[in-house]
């Protein structure tokens, strides 16, 4: 399973990338706006840090505008993936970009039908939003499981990015139901390697070691 970072915070990306734990990065207009930096500048910087795919989202709502933006954005770096909203116009743009060999991440997926259509249109990645779906009382994890089943049944190469990940359980369950990737905010990622029993175990080992050393003096 691959792990992407869901952020445009380059300090956080550098820190976690140094652990070898970053297979890619996803951004969206909200995430970019939070950094208060020029879109092109921040995407170029992220692409220079991370080897894997970096999703940059278009803001046009018409297919022609999306394709024009995509053609410009892909020139910024070799590892850019164009993030496209899941709409009729988005599907049209995804289809055109796929024919041009430009990788896409179709975002804001909330149903199996949406995921299936995006895959048929040629999406490289589809992003079901777990947290936002859970908020409506529908299981985001169940959607990921169904999407995986459909993609496998029909032999699509499209990969599922479990997005809108808010709790460690989302990451664990996404891995169990076959998400190819989880995109995780840095604040949550840093909690994944911690466990209170690990901390308690280390404290106990250290205390036992110190008393053993003391006894050997
Ligand atoms: C990732 O591609 C999405 O943009 C992101 O995970 C959305 O997360 P949110 O629902 O927490 O905003």
How does this structure look, described?
Transaldolase is important for the balance of metabolites in the pentose-phosphate pathway. It is found in: Cytoplasm. The active site is at residue 83. This is Probable transaldolase. It catalyses: D-sedoheptulose 7-phosphate + D-glyceraldehyde 3-phosphate = D-erythrose 4-phosphate + beta-D-fructose 6-phosphate. With 217 residues, this protein is of the alpha/beta class. Helix content is 53%, strand content 17%. It has 11 helices and 8 strands. The protein has helices spanning 10-17, 29-35, 39-49, 63-73, 88-99, 112-120, 130-134, 140-154, 168-176, 186-192, 196-215, and strands at residues 2-6, 24-26, 54-57, 80-85, 104-109, 125-128, 159-162, 181-184. Strands 1-2-3-4-5-6-7-8 form an 8-stranded parallel β-barrel, surrounded by 7 helices. Helix 6 (112-120) links the parallel strand 5 and strand 6. Helix 6 (112-120) runs parallel beside helix 8. It is globular. The model has no long low-confidence stretch (mean pLDDT 97). The structure holds erythose-4-phosphate. Erythose-4-phosphate is lined by residues 6, 26, 28, 107, 127, 129, 131-132, 163-164, 183.
Briefly say what this structure is.
Pfam families: TAL_FSA (PF00923). The chain is an alpha/beta fold.
State the major sheet. Answer: 8 strands, parallel, barrel
* Residue share in β-strands: 15-25%
Low-confidence stretches: none
In round numbers, the mean pLDDT is 97
What overall geometry do the principal axes of the alpha carbons give? Answer: globular
- In helices, the fraction of residues equals 40-55%
Quaternary state of the chains: single chain
* Sheet with most strands: strand arrangement: 1-2-3-4-5-6-7-8
Structural class: alpha/beta
- H/I helix tally: 11
Keywords: Cytoplasm, Pentose shunt, Schiff base, Transferase
Protein name: Probable transaldolase
Pfam families: TAL_FSA
Subcellular location: Cytoplasm
């Amino acid at each position: 399973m691959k792990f992407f970072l869901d952020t445009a915070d380059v300090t956080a990306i550098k820190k976690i990338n140094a652990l070898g734990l970053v297979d890619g990065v996803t951004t969206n207009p909200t995430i970019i706006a939070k950094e208060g930096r020029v879109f092109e500048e921040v995407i170029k910087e992220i692409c220079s840090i991370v080897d894997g795919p970096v999703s940059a989202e278009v803001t046009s709502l018409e297919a022609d505008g999306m394709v024009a933006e995509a053609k410009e954005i892909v020139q910024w770096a070799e590892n850019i993936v164009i993030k496209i909203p899941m709409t009729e116009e988005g599907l049209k743009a995804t289809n055109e970009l796929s024919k041009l060999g430009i990788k896409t991440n179709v975002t804001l997926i909330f149903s199996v039908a949406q995921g299936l259509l995006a895959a048929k249109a040629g999406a490289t990645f589809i992003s079901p939003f777990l947290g936002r779906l859970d908020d409506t009382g529908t299981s985001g994890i169940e959607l990921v499981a169904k999407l995986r089943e459909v993609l496998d049944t029909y032999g699509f190469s499209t990969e599922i990015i479990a997005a809108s990940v808010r709790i460690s359980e989302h990451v664990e369950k996404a891995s169990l139901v076959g998400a190819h990737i989880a995109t995780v905010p840095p604040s949550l990622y840093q909690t994944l390697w911690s466990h209170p029993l690990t901390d308690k175990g280390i404290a106990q080992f250290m205390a036992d070691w110190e008393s053993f050393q003391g006894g050997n003096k």
